[in-house]
């Protein structure tokens, strides 16, 4: 898939999730994002690898965003299925974000310090953008932003690493020297 198309689809998914969550239509963003993920997987040359990356990202989102909700640093106006956890549309946003790791964010491969810095500032910036549109509410802004900076500074290099080393399909040969 073209990197530009991947980037545009991610942006569509991100805005769909945030605006859906903000306007009491959370399933709209979730369905849109899952459609984008499905399209990504359909077009992927290595579906199993991409599924592993996406599953890892959703797991991180469940743990990290769930922590922020549980600690009452953040709240969401809609989409929470189980009290004290992150809404489903945030998890689908993590999934659609994972589709960028080998494409439009592929330039971060093996650039772990750059990924750390990207996460340190980009993560909180994305949540501030979501907050300005009404998709997320900062209950304890200082703690939330500090936590988001740490979470994303750790998540970005970790996700880049996972996207790089995810097991290839059974029939695919590894390149010598590849981890």
Structure report:
- The protein is built from six helices and two strands, in the order αααβααβα.
- The chain is mainly α and 179 residues long.
- The chain has one domain.
- It has a two-stranded antiparallel sheet.
- α1 packs antiparallel against α4 (88-98) and α2 runs parallel beside α4.
- It is globular.
- The chain starts with a helix and ends in a 14-residue tail after the last helix.
Which percent band covers the strand fraction? under 5%
Assembly form of the protein: single chain
Total strands: the figure is: 2
Q: End-to-end span in angstroms?
A: 24 Å
Percent of residues in helices: 55-70%
Low-confidence stretches: 173-179
Shape: globular
The side-by-side strand order for the widest beta sheet comes to 1-2
Structural class: mainly alpha
Indicate how many domains the architecture comprises: 1
Indicate the radius of gyration in whole angstroms. Answer: 16 Å
Mean pLDDT: 92
In N-to-C order, the SSE pattern is HHHEHHEH
């Amino acid at each position: 898939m073209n990197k530009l198309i991947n980037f545009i689809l991610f942006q569509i998914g991100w805005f769909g999730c945030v605006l859906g969550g903000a306007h009491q239509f959370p399933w709209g963003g979730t369905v849109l994002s899952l459609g984008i993920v499905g399209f990504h997987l359909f077009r992927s040359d290595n579906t199993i690898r991409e599924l592993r990356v996406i599953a890892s990202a959703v797991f991180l989102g469940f743990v990290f965003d769930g922590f922020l909700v549980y600690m009452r640093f953040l709240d969401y106006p809609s989409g929470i299925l189980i009290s004290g956890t992150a809404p489903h549309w945030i998890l689908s946003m993590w999934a659609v974000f994972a589709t960028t790791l080998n494409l439009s964010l592929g330039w971060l491969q093996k650039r772990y310090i750059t990924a750390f810095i990207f996460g340190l500032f980009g993560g909180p910036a994305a949540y501030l953008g979501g907050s300005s549109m009404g998709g997320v509410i900062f209950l304890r802004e200082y703690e939330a932003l500090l936590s988001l900076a740490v979470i994303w500074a750790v998540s970005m290099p970790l996700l880049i690493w996972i996207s790089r080393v995810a097991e290839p399909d059974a029939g695919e040969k590894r390149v010598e020297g590849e981890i």
